[in-house]
Design brief:
Mean pLDDT of chain A: 91
Distance between the termini of chain A: 52 Å
Number of strands of chain B: 0
Low-confidence stretches of chain B: none
Strand content of chain A: 25-35%
Radius of gyration of chain A: 24 Å
Order of helices and strands of chain A: EEEHEEHEHHHEHEHEEHHHEHEEHE
Number of strands of chain A: 14
Oligomer: heterodimer
Radius of gyration of chain B: 20 Å
Strand order of the largest sheet of chain A: 6-7-8-3-9-10
Largest sheet of chain B: none
Mean pLDDT of chain B: 92
């Protein structure tokens, strides 16, 4: 649905050129919820703003629904933008218009008739659950309600793509969840492709199917959410993951454990049905090792279970080797944190 | 008492009429000129929807030059220009020409500052929906700045009232002229007080009207 090829964005300032995006290439398939995560200043906002050309790229291709946006004329671009919805961190609703009039705005721009507009506005108010707020001005709405209006407005012209620029960053945790659920519903109901820019891994964990990690103007890592969470390749990805699945052991404990002989500390991660298998019992029975459970958590990645278990295995080198063979045979993802033999 | 009031009223009533006529016509014409200029100043500024440094700079300079000329000088300097469009350089209607020329650049700046209050994010949101520059001006900039624009109209009108006091120089009449001719030159304190009171009432009325309207338009 969206292909980004060799995208470069430079800003010139008095201090010289600043590279905001350095040769970024991404392929976002239709129907996915694609998370782009990065620290502030990493270039993620510039990237999403390039996807509807609010920001003009220095070079590269941005192909949305078959059209290379930088090649389009002014009028063609305006038409292409009607098929790309966007929502913002600070909502940017028109204060002089009611909720219904705000949702009608993109339809007026697209030149639809009053009758068509009023039918569509009703559908959208229902979709985002704001039927009772049609005549209210944005000034009287809560943050979550404002973002619902933003979503309804972005979907009015039935776009194929929805861009979310930190759409939940100004909301409290509960409202964030309700907005994310709404976005997931819309993605499933309408088959809409959603691109989400965020600095919160929580958002990626809740709804994204794919994720790209952007750091210092480059994509350092990307892929399906499960594989990035289980086998992060970059430090920055590991840092982001630890914000939602904290699994660092306290330093004091590690020091104490280091005095144990014939032991190793391993982190085991498992996904989906594996999470409900009695792995540890089986491990202990088959391999004759002893285990000391240090840390465990079970959570979900979208709707799949995702578990982490940090244990200390005690046994002679042979026994430990056997334990590793067993875990491999069960297709568990194992990482050795510390080894003392 | 009544035989004293009648001649006073005969002096004041036409003066009030002349002031209101000059203020109303000048303000409307100043907006016809100044509103588009203010819009151009905003949309051509760097990073806005139609950035154009040359247009912005040249227009800005012309506006600054016109605004720095004292009104009394403009009034006299424009006499040939006024004669060429109205046919005469004397009288109430003739005074409107310099009033408009002086108020239009003021209006342009007032409109500019109102339109700049509209957060650029809202404009970007409209751009992201495929709005054209024309649609953004008509459907975003002007409606979103409506309350502030109305306060600007009140400010402009009140400034124009101040300028009309000098219209007497070209035979424009009005309350200001009356205050100078009778109240000051002929030591008629009663006329001076009455004209000032009337002016205070008019200014108060316009300002409260503006404030009330602006408040009603703020949601």
């Amino acid at each position: 649905m969206i292909q980004i090829k060799q995208l470069v964005k430079k800003y010139s300032s008095r201090q010289g050129n600043v590279i905001a995006l350095d040769n970024v290439s991404l392929n976002i398939v239709q129907g996915s919820i694609y998370g782009i995560i990065g620290l502030s200043g990493a270039g993620k906002s510039t990237l999403v703003r390039c996807l509807n050309l609010l920001e003009k790229p220095t070079s590269g291709h941005i192909i949305v629904a078959g059209q290379d946006l930088p090649q389009l004329s002014g009028k063609e671009l305006r038409q292409a933008r009607q098929k790309i919805g966007m929502i913002f961190q600070h909502f940017y609703l028109l204060q002089s218009r009611t909720v219904a009039e705000n949702i009608a705005f993109p339809l007026e721009i697209a030149g639809q008739s009053k009758k068509e507009i009023s039918i569509r506005v009703k559908e959208l108010l229902h979709l985002v659950g704001l039927e009772d707020k049609a005549g209210v001005y944005p000034g009287q709405l809560s943050g979550g309600q404002k973002q619902r209006v933003g979503i309804a407005r972005a979907l009015a012209t039935k776009p194929q793509v929805l861009l979310c620029d930190e759409a939940t960053s100004a909301l409290d945790p509960q409202t964030t969840l309700s907005i994310l659920n709404l976005l997931r519903d819309i993605n499933q109901k309408l088959g809409l492709t959603i691109v989400m820019i965020t600095h919160e891994m929580k958002v990626v964990k809740e709804i994204c199917t794919d994720v790209a990690v952007i750091h210092e103007a480059r994509i350092v890592e990307n892929g399906p959410v499960e594989s990035v969470f289980i086998r992060p390749q970059s430090d920055i990805a590991r840092q982001f993951i630890s914000t939602v699945f904290p699994n660092e052991l306290p330093a004091d404990l590690l020091k104490e454990l280091a005095t144990h002989r014939d032991s190793e500390i391993v982190r085991i991660q498992f996904l989906g049905s594996r999470a409900s298998d009695p792995i540890i019992t089986d491990l202990l029975r088959t391999c004759d090792v002893r285990a000391n459970i240090l840390y465990g958590s079970i959570d979900h990645l979208r709707s799949t279970l995702f578990g982490t278990l940090t244990i200390e295995l005690l046994g002679n080198p042979e026994q430990l080797k056997a334990a590793h063979r067993y875990m491999e045979s069960r297709e568990l993802n194992v990482e050795v944190i510390h080894r003392e033999l | 008492m009544s035989f004293e009031l009648t001649p006073l009223l005969q002096l004041i009533t036409p003066a009030v009429g002349e002031t209101l006529y000059m203020v109303a016509v000048s303000t409307v014409l100043a907006y016809l000129l100044g509103l588009p200029l203010g819009i151009i100043l905003v949309v051509t500024s760097p990073g806005h929807i139609l950035p154009n440094p040359w247009v912005e700079r040249i227009l800005g300079t012309i506006i600054n030059i016109l605004r720095s000329a004292p009104f009394i000088i403009l009034l006299v300097a424009l006499i040939p220009f006024t004669r060429s469009i109205i046919g005469t350089s004397i009288g109430t209607t003739a005074a409107i020409v310099p009033l408009v020329i002086s108020a239009a650049p003021f209006v342009a700046r007032v409109v500019e500052s109102s339109l700049k209050e509209v957060p650029y994010g809202v404009i970007e949101a409209a751009l992201s929906m495929g709005a054209s520059p024309r649609q953004i001006i008509q459907k975003v900039l002007l409606p979103e700045a409506k309350a502030s624009l109305i306060l600007g109209v009140a400010i402009t009108t009140i400034s124009v009232i101040g300028y009309t006091a000098m219209a007497g120089t070209v035979g424009g009449g009005g309350l200001g002229d009356l205050a100078i001719q009778y109240g000051y030159n002929r030591f008629r304190t009663d006329i001076m007080i009455i004209t000032v009171v009337i002016l205070v009432v008019i200014v108060q009325f316009i300002q409260s009207l503006g404030t009330t309207l602006a408040r009603k338009l703020t949601h």
